[in-house]
Amino acid sequence: MSIRNILVVVAFSLASLTAARAEGLRPIEGKSIDLGGTSGLAYYTAERDGFRVIATLAQGETGTPIRVVSVLTPGQRAVLSTPQQADAIEISRNDDSLLVRKAKAATN
Q1: What confidence score (pLDDT) does residue 6 get?
Q2: pLDDT tens digits along 8-41
Q3: 37: containing domain
Q4: Banded pLDDT at 107 (limits 50, 70, 90)
Q5: 3-state SS, residue 65
Q6: From CA 93, how far away is CA 90, in angstroms rounded?
Q7: H-helix or E-strand containing 17?
Q8: How far is it, in rounded angstroms, from Cα 89 to Cα 11?
Q9: Given CA atoms 38, 54, 42, 105 in this order, what sign does their dihedral have?
């Protein structure tokens, strides 16, 4: 089974554990991330220091997966992007809610 297929199976499995909420994700609820040729899954756990956000991404079906981990406190955000895409994914914490949405990638 390819890395991409494994990520899709994990995403559907995690998503089926909890119902989606309009205001954002619940802890351990998976959210698909698509950055063109790079895609994967993000979820979080609520911990004492903040929301620990874990995003696992891979390029194509055979790319080596990478994991990005960040702890967000209220008002903080993390942006995931690739050099090839104009769009990015923003993961932000608003009080007790975590939002995942498309955003414009920063240009240098």
Answers
A1: 56
A2: 555 544 443 333 333 477 888 889 999 888 999 9
A3: 3-104
A4: low
A5: coil
A6: 10
A7: helix 3-17
A8: 17
A9: negative
Number of domains in the chain: 1
Cβ neighbours of 54 (radius 10 Å): 14
How far is it, in rounded angstroms, from Cα 30 to Cα 97? 14
Q: What is the residue type of 30?
A: G
What is the C-alpha to C-alpha distance for residues 94 and 75, in angstroms, rounded to an integer?
Answer: 6
Owner of token pair 């809610």: 97
CA distances from 87 to 10, 37, 68, 95, 102 (A): 24, 12, 18, 25, 7
As given in the structure block, the two tokens for residue 59 are: 């390029």
Structure tokens at 86: 């104009």
